[in-house]
Every structure is written in structure tokens, then in C-alpha cells.
Amino acid sequence: AERDGQIAGILPLVEVKSLLFGHALVSTPFCVYGGTLAIDDGAHLALQSAACDLAGRLNVDYLEMRNTRRRNPEWPGKDLYCTFRREINADGEKNMLAIPRKQRAMVRKGIQKQLRVKMDTNCRDLYRLYSESLRNLGTPVFSSAYFNLLREIFKDDVEILTVCNGDESVASVLSFRFRDEILPYYGGGSSAARSLAANDFMYWQVMERAREQGLKSFDFGRSKRNTGAFEFKCHWGFEPQPLFYEYFLVKAKEMPNLSPANPKYGAGIRAWQRLPVPVANLLGRFLAPYLG
Q1: Secondary structure of residue 153 in the 3-state scheme
Q2: How far apart are CA 249 and CA 262, in angstroms?
Q3: Taking residues 215-241, what's their average pLDDT?
């Protein structure tokens, strides 16, 4: 949106089309937040109106807007997801003490196990550990080329931190930096990670590294309510903040339900969990791009 030759707002939209999961216009898939960026309500409404018109011309099932606050109460919407954000204190010990006692003990357990971290310059360990974790959840994974592309495009604003137990990589996470914020986004661990408290140690190391770099905010990303990931972040002392995903329906009669909790996906998820990881990775690259 422009006014008097100046940009007044931007709305990123991606068309996602799949025989299995439908046809949608989304702002923005594969991301926690989306929706309109505008300097005032006039620019916001103009962009939203244009998006609705575009959704109609494309004859999609629905337009999905991923907002941090309710924008269109008259539209169908759901608050299935919450995000978790907190300031990073300049004092590392204060950050440690901000973690509730039981979870803090897990971080200290990882320290006592003498786990170490390395900053990876490639995605090999990340992809191996992340894809194993997603297979265990019954979720398709992107191809390794996707993660290489993220590193290529975002350059210094993306980093991969990997936790090692001796010479073995047991957990890894890809994080994005934006201004003074760190956002660990794609992470996973091996079967040994739980007993080593490697995931707890990993996120603590991400926070510590961000603090040392002078970053001010830690964004733990979105999680579905009443899931293990949701509880994990709450146990870290983060307060859940609801996200509002709103839908302008075009061909669809109701909001989509692509959640793994949807009973119609149950059999597929259970079958996926039994696949060998290499087979799941091969098949996943054809499905994952439509699960934004």
C-alpha cells in the first residue's frame, strides 16, 4: 500500500495448493506471525480488502491471516497456538534464576553432564536430529535443501547451535536473529537427548549466546495448547500469549483443521511414526511444503 509515493503498508501472501490439504492464501505459511504491517488503519484495511479480492480471484478455499491480536472478530478464528516471549537479562545468573526450580535443575543436569556446544557451518547434524524428532512425532520433514537455503538467504541472521555428548551430536537447533531478538525455530534431538537433558541445555546455551551478543529478547516460538512442547515452555517460566489465526472463507464452509490432533490424520500419523527415518525423509519432502 502506498500513499503520496511512500510505502504505507505491506501484506505478504503465499498461495498454497495441495490435493491433500486444500487451496489457501496464507500470511505467512511456515511462520508463527503474519498478517498486515501498516502505519495506520486506512492502509491496513486497504491491504486486507485487496487480499480478500485476490483470494476470490484465485478461487481459494480460504484466506488465512496469522495475527498476534484479534483483527477481525467477525471472521471465523481460532487460538489453537500460543507464542512465548521474554526479555533476556544482561545478567546470566538472573536468567538462570528466572527458570522455575525443576526446569532449572534440568539445565544444571546438562551442565553437570559436561555437554558442550558447537556452532555448525552446515546443516548435516541439524537435519539428522530434526528429521528423527519429526518422524517420532509422525510429521513430514522438509528436504535438507530447505535448511541450506535458509542459511544462504539469511546469512549472518541465522545460526545453528549443536549440543555434543563427547564426540556425538545429540541435539541441534537453527535460530533466527532479528534486530535485538533471537528465535530458536527448528530444533530436535536424538533418543539420548532426554536422559542427558540436552534439549534443556541447548536452549539455555542459545539464551546465553544471545545475551553475550547483546540481544534483548528470547522468542520461544509457537506451540499448540495442551501439548508437550507447550508445557515445556511453560516450565521454563514463559507466559503463553495467544495467537489469533483468522479466516476469510471463499470456497470453504468452515475453518480448516490441519492439526495433528484431528482424528482423520490419526492413522496416517501412527503409520508415519513406524517408517524408517530415511524413508520418512524421502517422502516428507513431497508433503511438508503443504503443511504451513
Answers
A1: helix
A2: 20
A3: 93
Model pTM? 0.90
- Looking at residue 103, its pLDDT comes to 94
The closest of 222, 207, 232 to 87, measured between CA atoms, is: 207
DSSP 258: -
CA separation for the pair 129, 108 (Å, rounded): 22
Whether a cis peptide bond, with omega within 30° of 0, leads into 28 is: yes
Cβ partners under 8 Å of residue 17, min gap 6: 23, 24, 290
Other beta carbons within 10 angstroms of residue 116's beta carbon come to 12
| Contact partners, residue 54, CB within 8 Å, separation at least 6 | 13, 25
Cell numbers given for 47 = 491491504
Helix (H) or strand (E) holding 266: helix 266-273
Q: Are 53 and 15 in contact (CB under 8 A)?
A: no
Give CA 270 to chain center in angstroms. Answer: 23
3-state secondary structure of 58: helix
Cell of 39: 502505519
pLDDT at 178 over 90: yes
Cα angle: 238, vertex 161, 185; to 5 degrees: 45
C-alpha cell at 25: 492464501
Query: Cell numbers of 212, please?
Result: 553475550
User: What sign for the dihedral angle of Cα 187, 80, 83, 204?
Assistant: negative
Residue 240 grid coordinates: 503463553
pLDDT at 292: 64
CA torsion angle 70 72 75 80 (round to 10): -10
